Each structure stands twice: as C-alpha cells, then as structure tokens.
Amino acid sequence: MYKFRSFIEAEISRWPARLIWIIIFLLMVPVFFVSKSVFTVLAQKTDPDKKIVRKMNFPNSHTKEPMEILEVRSNGKVIQLDKEFTDDVWLQDFTIKFKNVSGKTITFIYMVLVFPETAQASEPIGIPTSHPVIYGLFPSRQATGAIGMKLLENNKVDEITLSAKSFDTLKTLLGKRRDMSLLSTAELHTVSVDFEDGMRWSAGDLFRPDPASPGKYTVVKENE
Question: Residue 201 and residue 61: Cα distance in Å, rounded?
Fold first, then answer.
C-alpha cells in the first residue's frame, strides 16, 4: 500500500499546479459546504443499509466528460447513480461500464471514490477518505511494456472494476475512521482521462503536453 501511495504521489507531482488545486478543492468541498450538523445526521441514519453513489460533475466545464457511464454495479447488482439502493456489502466488485465518447483513443482513466461522511475536523483537517478507481496505465508507465495497457477507441465500451485487493484496502482505510457498513454515501469523481495523442482531460478542461517542460501540461483555451 505504501509503495502504491508513493507511486500515486509521484504521478500527481507531474500534473499542472492548477489541476492539483482542483483535486484538493474536490476533497475539501464537504468541509466548506456541509455543516457539522449535516455530518451528524448522516452518522445517525436509522437505516444503514440504504446506500447511494453520487456522480460528481463540473457545472462550468468547457468540454464534456470523455466517457459516458452506461451501467454501474455494486456487489453484483445493477444500481442507479444518485439514487438510493439497499446492499449488505456495498461497493464489493464495484464496476463501471462506460463508452468512450471523446473522439479520441483513451489510454488511462483516473477516478476516485470520496466518502464525505468520514470528514471530521481532526482526521486530518477535515479531508474525507478517498480511494482510486483506475483504468489502464499511468502515462509514465505506458512506454515500459507493463501489464495493463489499454487502448479504448472512440465509441468502444469497456469496464473499470474495483479489484478484490483494492476493496480490502478500501475497507481497511475506511475502518480507521468508521466501519464501511455504517457509511451511506460515496461520491464518484472523474479526475483525469489521458489519450493516445498525449492530450489529457481533467475537471472539464483539455490539456496538451508542454513542449518546453516534458511531463507537464498546459490548458487548451476555448478558442483554440
């Protein structure tokens, strides 16, 4: 787990500063916009079996999200995003079936599940627990021949599944704050999508590699 976290941190260090601040903002949203009393109500829900997975979008996006979600499954059952469902072991075998609608070939998708009910002012500084859901290889590994390379052409369909190992890691991580079975809400964020031509979509914007700084990106302006 430590090696994986270090690898994630190294990859994030390659992203533009603007993108990193967007991600931090996403994680801090529950702290600034949801009052402590709301968290108390969530923690005291009378029916802990009622769950919901909310799809978080970017209302001021300049470009549409490059993937269209066709189906979501939790513990073998099809669920509807943004609608409550009942599940004993939710998010086990969590699967997202999606279609590439970007017009490009997708090589990598980085999504995160965020659990707002775990945000407490002291644990740590109110940032909720989050966990990655990844499709393909990080761009820095795509030229190494490592297992897991993806080339999803435009209009093609594929799936992302939270592996059994990742699910166990998620349960352990959440368990440091609250038992996973007592949580009712997960937020699904699409952080970034990378393409075969080197471009990257993130938070509603399209980025291109910066020729002056290898490994860095610059935002594509609306009129370009």
Answer: 11
Rounded to whole angstroms, what are the CA distances from 115 to 55, 119, 214?
A: 12, 8, 34
- DSSP symbol at 117: G
SS3 213: coil
Inter-residue contact 189 to 56 (CB < 8 Å) = yes
What is the residue-averaged pLDDT of the chain? Answer: 80
Is 112 within a domain? yes
Per this entry, what is the length of the chain? 224
Token pair belonging to 111: 């999504």
**Containing domain of residue 23, as a range?**
2-219
Q: Is residue 98 part of a domain?
A: yes
**Residues 118, 124, 128, CA angle at the centre, nearest 5°?**
30
Contact of 79 with 64, CB cutoff 8 Å: no
User: For residue 82, what are its two tokens?
Assistant: 């943004």
| Residue 224 maps to a domain | no
Token pair of 186, please?
A: 């997960």
Return the amino acid letter for 150.
Answer: K
Separation CA 129–CA 31 (nearest Å) = 12
In which band, very low, low, confident or very high, does the pLDDT at 72 lie, cut at 50, 70 and 90? very high
Tell which wins on pLDDT, 141 or 66. 66
Q: Is the pLDDT of residue 102 over 80?
A: yes
Q: How many domains does the chain have?
A: 1
Q: What is the mean pLDDT of residues 190-217?
A: 90
